[in-house]
Every structure is written in structure tokens, then in C-alpha cells.
Amino acid sequence: MIEKDFVTEGLRRTKIDEYLEKELERAGYGGMDIQVTPLGTMVIVYA
Predict the structure, then answer these.
(1) What are phi and psi of 34, to 5 degrees?
(2) What is the pLDDT of residue 30?
(3) Tens digits of per-residue pLDDT, 9-33?
């Protein structure tokens, strides 16, 4: 079941990355990083 969690997390990251790449195309999207903290999830966008 651990493998399923890795695949699910990878798919989630890929969907978010593709969405941000499409939406921020004109701004010069450079990538993103996701950090899960006790208070919530932080998405860092590099431009």
C-alpha cells in the first residue's frame, strides 16, 4: 500500500504543476515546491 501512496502523491504534484504551468505561462513559471506543515499545505511557486 505504500507504493499506492507514492503514486497518488506523484499524480497530485503533477496535476498541480501542470495547472500552474498553464495559468502562469506568461509570467515565466519556473517550477513549484509543496511543503506539508502541521498548520496546512504550503505551495511555493518559482517564477
Answers:
(1) -115, 130
(2) 92
(3) 999 999 999 999 999 989 999 999 9
| C-beta of residue 33 within 8 angstroms of C-beta of residue 47 | no
Contacts of 32 (CB under 8 A, 6+ apart): 16, 17, 20, 43, 44, 45, 46
Q: Do the strands 40-46 and 31-37 form a parallel or antiparallel pair, or are they unpaired?
A: antiparallel
Distance CA 22, CA 4 (A): 27
Residue 2 burial class via C-beta count within 10 angstroms: exposed 0-12, middle 13-18, buried 19 and up: exposed
pLDDT of residue 1: 75
